[in-house]
Amino acid sequence: MADADLRTLIAGAGPIVAMPQPSVPPADLQRSLNTLVHGTTVIAVKYDGGVLNVGDRRATANYSVMYDRAEKVLPIDDYTLLAISGSYARAMEVVRYLRHSFRYFERSQLQPMSLDGKLAELAKVVAASLPAALQGIGGFIPVFSAYDRVSHEGRIFFYDAMGARFESTDYAAAGSGSYQIRGVFNYIVKTRGPFHEMSRSEALREALLMLDIAADLDAATGGWSKVLPLAKTISAEGIEDVAEDELAAVTAEISALER
Amino acid sequence: MAFTPFDFNEAIAQRRDHALEGLRHGSPVVGLSLDAGLVLLTVRRTQRKIYEIYDRLIYSAIGNQSDIEAVRLGAVDLAAREGFERSPDDVTAQRLVGFSLSPALKEVFRDQWRAPSVIRAIFGELGPKPEDDVFFVLNYDGEFSQHAGAAAIAGTHEAEERMLNHLRKFMDRLGATPPGVGSDALLTSALAEALRAWAVGLIALREQPDREEDEAAEDPALVVAALKEELATGRVEAGILDRATKREAKFAMVAPGVLARATDLAMNAEDA
């Protein structure tokens, strides 16, 4: 009889960190489940020291605002940020999965997972959500920001619903409000120069300005009249929150433009 | 094959001897719980010896390399699965060691058809405050013990006792440290003291078991001489679970610069 090795004896057989796949409900239930879809706007832009992510705080279900303090920009590890749009439940589960999966790899293999490995892992879970996305429930689209420790630069990747990934030279956005501001990105780059040459404060101002426009034009994107948006940076030093004071000052300055 | 109680005792004794013989030459490991975080320190030659198991769990061991690795991977697997399926808050050293690692090691030790594991391991768990920190020392036969404040593993019981004595004296002095001493300076002096405790363990391991030289091992000149000799070929390795960090990962290897300062401090005999 072959004996179990000590590792298996300790931990038992079976998967360690495995993403549960969403089940697609029968067609007659789907209409009521459509209320689980959430709108949002999340934006990632480069700046001269790394990548900046901003997101609104609104979580919606159909025409209802469910929550006005949702966090949609989430750290996966010290060099990776994920900005999420779409089904909040699925996205949170994916974030939890990726956090564990990246760390489990690093702890067991004694080396960090490569950037390409992390991107492939995310592609798999995005693609696995496709059936649910096609039914109008459970789909989610992430924007992946990383600080590349090999080439010493910030990098931004966005995905489509099938899991295809694209690297962006300068910026990306996702969520229901992202379509309304696509042209604004081009306008900013063509009038003010590329984001990756901007200072952190310049990039923050432009990103928040776009978030404000998205909130104006998209019902599912929250403004900042009650709760400040969320902003995080990722650089050689790791992930940092943009302080509330700074956010309050910049958002007040932008709001004043229209008065 | 007839198997009598005598055979059983004899077999267990032989397996015990086999394990103890394998452990005797291991480089000791020192554990300290400080305000800055929970630290493990050792002197290594070729292999890395200090590892992260989970968000708040750190591990090191002496013994057979493949057994050290099997226990490490088993613990990493178990912690990751539990943390993912339940919550990182539910992953504790007490559950890991008491309910999974210890029974597995005991099973292997008692099984006549397997080679016994040769391992003595130390696990450190970081709490919110230093008084919540806990160490577990796990033996090749599944026996384990819990420690607070400081812990040590070495090839013999005698060596461990002397290291712990040394560490306890330091912890008493640390308790009397006047406020205002910077946390960096405290960490460096704690690492230096951990390194001296390591040398105390090494000196005890080298002694003949029948010699009564309790105090000699604490002799600062002997400690410095032992460190000089060992650091010619080995190098200091320390890992920390950082209590104050804002980073996602609390675990980090202590930077070479900090270790170099701590080593200089440990070699300064006047202060020993």
List the helices and strands and how they pair.
The complex is a heterodimer of chains A (259) and B (272).
Chain A: H1 6-11, H2 27-33, E1 42-47, E2 50-55, E3 59-61, E4 64-67, E5 73-77, E6 80-86, H3 88-109, H4 115-128, H5 130-134, E7 140-148, E8 153-159, E9 165-168, E10 171-174, H6 182-192, H7 200-217, E11 230-235, E12 238-241, H8 244-256
Antiparallel strand pairs in A: 1-2, 1-10, 2-11, 3-4, 5-6, 6-7, 7-8, 8-9, 11-12
Helix pairs in contact in A: 7-8
Chain B: H1 5-23, E1 29-33, E2 37-44, E3 50-54, E4 57-63, H2 65-85, H3 93-110, E5 119-125, E6 134-139, E7 144-147, E8 150-153, H4 157-175, H5 183-206, H6 220-231, E9 235-242, E10 251-253, H7 256-267
Antiparallel strand pairs in B: 1-2, 1-8, 2-9, 3-4, 4-5, 5-6, 6-7, 9-10
Describe the structure.
The complex is a heterodimer of chains A (259) and B (272). Chain A is an alpha+beta fold and 259 residues long. Chain A has a single domain, classed as Aminohydrolase, N-terminal nucleophile (Ntn) domain (Glutamine Phosphoribosylpyrophosphate, subunit 1, domain 1), CATH 3.60.20.10. Chain A is built from 8 helices and 12 strands. Chain A has a 5-stranded antiparallel β-sheet, covered by helices on one side. In chain A, a hairpin with a 4-residue loop joins strand 7 and strand 8. In chain A, helix 7 packs across helix 8. The longest helix of chain A has 22 residues. With 272 residues, chain B is an alpha+beta fold. Chain B folds into 2 domains: 113 residues, Aminohydrolase, N-terminal nucleophile (Ntn) domain (Glutamine Phosphoribosylpyrophosphate, subunit 1, domain 1); 96 residues, no CATH class. Helix content of chain B is 46%, strand content 21%. Chain B contains 7 helices and 10 strands. In chain B, the strands form 2 sheets. Chain B has a 5-stranded antiparallel β-sheet with strand order 8-1-2-9-10, covered by helices on one side. In chain B, helix 4 packs antiparallel against helix 5 and helix 5 packs across helix 6. Chains A and B meet through helix 1 and helix 3 of A and strand 3, helix 2 and helix 3 of B.
